[in-house]
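Example for tutorial group B:
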C-alpha cells in the first residue's frame, strides 16, 4: 500500500511519518507539503528508500486530488483552518484518511467516503484521539455512564510553529461556538476559562487548574454514549503555567478578539501581531517542561455498583535520558504517533466501517493501547468504588 502525508514537513506530522518508517509496511511513504525545502529536509532525515517528497497545495483542489488518487491512504497533518479543504480532497480522491484535529468540517463528506468504500477518522492524536479510546475503554465496562471528564496537559512552547500559534488563537476565541459542555441532553456553550477544576496529572507534571476547551470529544462521546444515559461530558486542558497566564491576560484585555489596529500606516490584527512576535521570540519558542499528560475520569455503574474509572498516560522523559524524546520531541511524538497508529490500523483492515467516522466507532481501544505500548507510551488505570 502507498500513503501520502499532508503537511509532512511539520514538526508533529514528521514524527508520525517517522513512526510509519519504524513500524509500518507501506511500500511508499510520500511527504507532501507546500514547503519543498522543508519536505526534502524530512526525506533526508528519515533516510529510508520508501520515503519521497511531492509538493502539494490542498487549496488547489484539482491538482491535490490528482496527486492523492495515486495513494491508498492519506495521513492529514494540516492545520484546523485547512481541514475542510484537505478532507474534501481526500474524499474525492477515494482514499482512506485520518487527521489530528477533528473540529467537524470533515463530517460533511461522510457520504462521499461511503460511496468509495473508505473511512475517514477526524481527530486522532493525543486529544482528541487517545482520550476517546481511554473514555471508551472505561465506558464499555459499565452498564450506565453518569459523567465523563477528559483533561490534558500539553507542555510545549506557546508558538513553536504557525499551526500551534493558530491553535492557541482558535481555542480561546471568545466567540467560538464549539466551546461546549454536554449536560442533561444539551450542548451548552461556555466562555473561555469556564468551569475551573484542579486536575492531578501524572508526574512530573503535577496538579493544574484546567478550563473547558473546544475539543471534539464532547460531541463524539455524547454520540457514542447516548444509550448509556450519560448526563455530563466536559473536556478541559492546560498549557504550561506561563502560557496560561499570558492567554488569560490577553483574553481579559480583549486582545483575543483580534481587532484591527493601525500601526505606522498599516492595518493589522492585534492578536496576529502578538502571534508573529511569539513565533520569532525565545519566550514563544521555549518552555521549562516538555511532554504530554492525559487524565480521563469516567463515573458510572459497573456490576451494579457506582465506580470511578480513571485513566492516565505516561511516556519517556524529555530530559534527554531516552534518545528521540528530548525536549519538544516528547510533545510532538506524543501527538504524532497516535495518528500514525490510527492510519496503520486502517491499512491493516482493523476498522471495518466506512464514511467519516468518530474515533469511538473506528477503533478498538485494546488495539490502540497495544500499539502505544510498543512505542513506550503507557496507559494506566484505576477503578474506585464510590
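The residue assignment follows.
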Amino acid at each position: 500500500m502507498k500513503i501520502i502525508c499532508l503537511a509532512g514537513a511539520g514538526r508533529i506530522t514528521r514524527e508520525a511519518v517517522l513512526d510509519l518508517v519504524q513500524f509500518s509496511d507501506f511500500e511508499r511513504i510520500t511527504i507532501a507539503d507546500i514547503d519543498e525545502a522543508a519536505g526534502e529536509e524530512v526525506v533526508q532525515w528519515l533516510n529510508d528508500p520508501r520515503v519521497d517528497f511531492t509538493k502539494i497545495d490542498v487549496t488547489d483542489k484539482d491538482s491535490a486530488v490528482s496527486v492523492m488518487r495515486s495513494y491508498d491512504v492519506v495521513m492529514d497533518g494540516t492545520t484546523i483552518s485547512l481541514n475542510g479543504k484537505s478532507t474534501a480532497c481526500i474524499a474525492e480522491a477515494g482514499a482512506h484518511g485520518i487527521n489530528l484535529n477533528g473540529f467537524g468540517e470533515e463530517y460533511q463528506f461522510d457520504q462521499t467516503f461511503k460511496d468509495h468504500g473508505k473511512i475517514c477518522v477526524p481527530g486522532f492524536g493525543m486529544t482528541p484521539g487517545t482520550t476517546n479510546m481511554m473514555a471508551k475503554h472505561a465506558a464499555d465496562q459499565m452498564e450506565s455512564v453518569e459523567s465523563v471528564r477528559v483533561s490534558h496537559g500539553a507542555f510545549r512552547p506557546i508558538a513553536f510553529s504557525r499551526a500551534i500559534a493558530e491553535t492557541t488563537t482558535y481555542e480561546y476565541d471568545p466567540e467560538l461556538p464549539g466551546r461546549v459542555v454536554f449536560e442533561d441532553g444539551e450542548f451548552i456553550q461556555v466562555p473561555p476559562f469556564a468551569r475551573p477544576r484542579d486536575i492531578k496529572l501524572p508526574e512530573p507534571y503535577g496538579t493544574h487548574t484546567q478550563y473547558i476547551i473546544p475539543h471534539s470529544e464532547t460531541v463524539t462521546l455524547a454520540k457514542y454514549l447516548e444509550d448509556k444515559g450519560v448526563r455530563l461530558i466536559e473536556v478541559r486542558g492546560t498549557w504550561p503555567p506561563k502560557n496560561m497566564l499570558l492567554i488569560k491576560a490577553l483574553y481579559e484585555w480583549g486582545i483575543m478578539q483580534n481587532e484591527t489596529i493601525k500601526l505606522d500606516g498599516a492595518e493589522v490584527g492585534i492578536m496576529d501581531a502578538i502571534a508573529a512576535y511569539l513565533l520569532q521570540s525565545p519566550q514563544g519558542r521555549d518552555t521549562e517542561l516538555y511532554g504530554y499528560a492525559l487524565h480521563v475520569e469516567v463515573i458510572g455503574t459497573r456490576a451494579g455498583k457506582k465506580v470511578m474509572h480513571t485513566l492516565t498516560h505516561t511516556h519517556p522523559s524529555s530530559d534527554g535520558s531516552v534518545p528521540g524524546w528530548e525536549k519538544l520531541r516528547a510533545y510532538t511524538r506524543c501527538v504524532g504517533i497516535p495518528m500514525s497508529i490510527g492510519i496503520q490500523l486502517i491499512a491493516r483492515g482493523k476498522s471495518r466501517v466506512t464514511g467519516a467516522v468518530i474515533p469511538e466507532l473506528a477503533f478498538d481501544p485494546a488495539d490502540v493501547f497495544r500499539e502505544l505500548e510498543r512505542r513506550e507510551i503507557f496507559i494506566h488505570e484505576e477503578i474506585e468504588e464510590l
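The chain has two domains: 2-121, 130-332+368-385. Compare this with the pattern of hydrophobic and polar residues in the output above.
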